[in-house]
């Protein structure tokens, strides 16, 4: 994850350096594009971080009895979704049947090796502004892979503010250019989010918080 972040920072620095070749009157307009590049890099980086986590966890060959309930539910997600599609959801009897079947399956999976669905991120970007609030969308991804919904709460306000502002630029709501001070501000926000998320995931893995025995303590 650190290497991934490093090359993205170098890539952004390359585009930022092109400002030196532009007349002063054009630089504010060019910085609007830099904000959009910054957002796309943040989206891509968060997606890579979560994919890396999934790949690491799947490589641990964990059984259902070893992991937290959130992880167990995430491991069952695909099977539960497949079962749901085969039952009529308008009938109360079938709803009850579905719940009983889910509990039985959860019990049977406790002795099996679980694998998180690694195709989740083909379906939705972590902070895609077209899929609702940036942070809420990130939480959907956390839920899908068994991570706590509040894991990245410290970055909620900054993430939502950044996504809202960059989306306003993309839609032409903010017609004025972006000053050097504004760009540096949003760059620091994006960098703080990326570094913070990386550290949170690192600590989650380091202390094996995905295991039942460590779920409530560091």
In short:
By secondary structure, the chain is an all-alpha fold. Helix content is 64%, strand content 0%.
Quick tags:
single chain; 218 residues; elongated
What would you say this structure looks like, in words?
With 218 residues, the protein is mainly alpha-helical. It has 8 helices and no strands. The longest helix is centred in the N-terminal third of the chain and has 36 residues, at 24-59.
H-E order: HHHHHHHH
**Helix proportion range:** 55-70%
Low-confidence spans: pLDDT under 50, at least 5 residues?
none
Shape: elongated
- Cα-atom radius of gyration: 21 Å
What is the average per-residue confidence, as pLDDT, rounded to a whole number?
Answer: 83
- Structural class by secondary-structure content: mainly alpha
Task: Tell me the major beta sheet.
Answer: none
What is the tally of beta strands?
0
Percentage beta strand: under 5%
What is the count of helical runs?
8
What is the first-to-last residue Cα distance?
22 Å
Layout of SSEs?
Blueprint: H1 2-17, H2 24-59, H3 69-75, H4 77-85, H5 92-109, H6 134-144, H7 156-170, H8 180-206
Helix pairs in contact: 1-2, 2-7, 2-8
């Amino acid at each position: 994850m650190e290497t991934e972040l490093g090359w993205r920072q170098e890539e952004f620095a390359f585009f930022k350096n092109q400002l030196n070749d532009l007349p002063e009157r054009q630089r504010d307009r060019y910085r609007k594009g830099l904000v959009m590049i910054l957002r796309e890099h943040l989206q891509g980086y968060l997606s890579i971080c979560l994919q890396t986590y999934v790949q690491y966890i799947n490589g641990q060959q964990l059984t259902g009895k070893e992991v937290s309930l959130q992880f167990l539910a995430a491991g069952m997600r695909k099977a539960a979704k497949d079962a749901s599609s085969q039952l009529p959801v308008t009938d109360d009897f079938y709803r009850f049947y579905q719940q009983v079947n889910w509990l039985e399956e959860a019990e049977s999976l406790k002795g099996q090796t679980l694998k998180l669905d690694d195709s989740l991120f083909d379906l939705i970007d972590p902070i895609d502004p077209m899929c609702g609030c940036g942070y809420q969308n990130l939480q959907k991804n956390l839920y899908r892979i068994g991570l706590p919904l509040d894991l990245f709460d410290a970055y909620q306000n900054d993430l939502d503010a950044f996504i809202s502002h960059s989306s306003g630029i993309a839609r032409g709501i903010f017609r004025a250019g972006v000053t050097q001070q504004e760009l540096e501000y949003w760059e620091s926000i994006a960098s703080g989010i990326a570094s913070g998320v990386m550290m949170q995931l690192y600590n989650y893995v380091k202390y094996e918080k995905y295991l039942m025995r460590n779920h409530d303590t560091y």
